[in-house]
Design goal:
It contains 4 helices and no strands. By secondary structure, it is an all-alpha fold. It is elongated. Its main location: nucleus.
């Protein structure tokens, strides 16, 4: 049995995410530092455009993980998303990206 209050709450959360889409994201500097830390050679450089592209990819990845986790929770008639829901969607999410 689904909880109508929980359904409204979940759909309201998705609407809020869409409204705040422009303000949520990863900082270019943070992404640059994370990527640069994995470079093997010191002379390897990362362009500003590449860092922006990677930040956008990370943003889309996180949003997709949130939506899929939410749908998984709804399919199990849960009122909130737990780590177990994320763990269930993760293998397919990684294959899709």
């Amino acid at each position: 049995m689904t909880n109508p209050y929980a359904e409204r709450q979940i759909s309201h959360s998705v609407e809020n995410m869409a409204e705040k889409d422009a303000e949520i994201g990863f900082k270019k500097e943070t992404v640059s530092k994370l990527l640069s830390s994995s470079f093997k050679e010191d002379k390897t450089r990362l362009s500003g455009d590449a860092a922006l592209l990677m930040a956008e990819l990370l943003k889309v990845f996180v949003q997709e993980a949130a939506v899929r986790s939410q749908k998984q929770a709804e399919s199990e008639d849960c009122d909130q998303v737990d780590i177990e829901h994320f763990e269930k969607i993760l293998p397919q999410l990684l294959l899709d990206f």
